[in-house]
User: Fold this.
Amino acid sequence: MRPPARKLFVKTWGCQMNVYDSARMADVLAPLGFSPTDRAEEADMVILNTCHIREKATEKVFSELGRLRAVKDARRRAGAGDTVIAVAGCVAQAEGREILARAPYVDMVFGPQTYHDLPAMVARLARARHQPILNTDFPVEAKFDRLPEEVSAPGPAAFLSVQEGCDKFCTFCVVPYTRGAEQSRPARQILDEARRLAAIGVREITLLGQNVNAYHGEGLDGQAWGLARLLHALAGIAGVDRLRYTTSHPLDMADDLVAAHAEIPQLMPFLHLPVQSGADRVLAAMNRRHRADDYRRAVARLRRARPDIALSSDFIVGFPGEDDADFAQTLRLLTEIGFAQAYSFKYSARPGTPAAAMDRQVAEDVKAARLQALQQVLNAQQLAFNRRHEGSVLPVLFERRGRQPGQLQGRSPYMQVVNACGPDRLIGSIVPVRIDTGHANSLGGTVDTTGPDMTGFVQEPAGFDCPGQVA
Ligand code: 5AD
Ligand code: SF4
Assistant:
């Protein structure tokens, strides 16, 4: 018997791992008759996939829950049926009981290690509608072993989770508590999933892990493989033209991984390598286990292997005890290195982490001033990096339509967003694009008809007319 047709609305906050998890939750629920919608008002089930990394992220969950309560009541009044409200992800893991106490209209709370159990949880709720479910186990059996074989992808670029959890215990970070200990998937599972993605038209795969370069899964030969071995094997899959991985820790940039950047043409010349601070004193208090110079050396090794590699990073300002001299060291490091893009945050005390209990918490206005100063330099670097590509031809994987009519949007090898006019059939192709303008957050270009014949890239015939083009 076919299951009843139902609508599922998933809202995702936080990291790419959450984006991946949300897609897998939808895959797990599809056989139960759930199809996606982007409107909570018509959903039979709403899942909030949450992030606990900073205080603001957590607050957003509670305000969204307030809105959903109104939606649930309105649907019930209109006779549209019941709305199951579920909270998943890291807030669920860390604050499951508080959520059920504060928002009793929530039906299900489950942590990141349990979503393969969703069908059982949905069935249990259907049997006992008034008993909310709280599932924040860390099962011994890896959730990866129980995910469905079917994969879906949002377009020609997809995520693939290879490692989860973290054993590093940076003193500011909740991840080791919400995602648990480091766990790597066996290479065979990963290669199978990559082949299935390639078969549905995926051209670019980003390997995901909270500490992805600490990957140490079981290899095809039964030995433990590092990330470099895994990347070499993935590069052998026909159709996978681009590989990336995120997020990395500077300590785990092994020699063979650095060498992979020189050896594997599919491995894109872009790396997100968080440093957090440029001051050794702060790095030590953060328990990052490396000094600023170790980071500089890791970058130098990468640049020797792949001279055009573009770097991105994460920075925290206002960590407890950070003074003006420490902050100046951070500015010095980022000026020396030069980043193509970066994320920067004010330190946010997270309950249960060692840094939250440290003395010398930094005043909010000092944090704000440092963040502004840091972002000014980072924004200037990003703009300079984008402008540097003006006039060059970059291979762009078009992923979707752009905002303007007739426009397509894709990514350069360096992760820049590129907008150019072109027909829809170029979505899913890697196309040479001449870069006309480098903006703050994107590049504008023209599909190139005269550029180098990049084998395997689609050459667009001359004279394509772009209706959205402003003369
Ligand atoms: N406060 C501010 N930023 C944080 N991050 C992690 N924990 C915190 C925190 N408590 C940042 C780090 C990390 C990124 C994902 O989020 O920079 O690399
Ligand atoms: Fe958090 Fe540090 Fe682990 Fe990254 S390496 S997830 S910042 S504990």
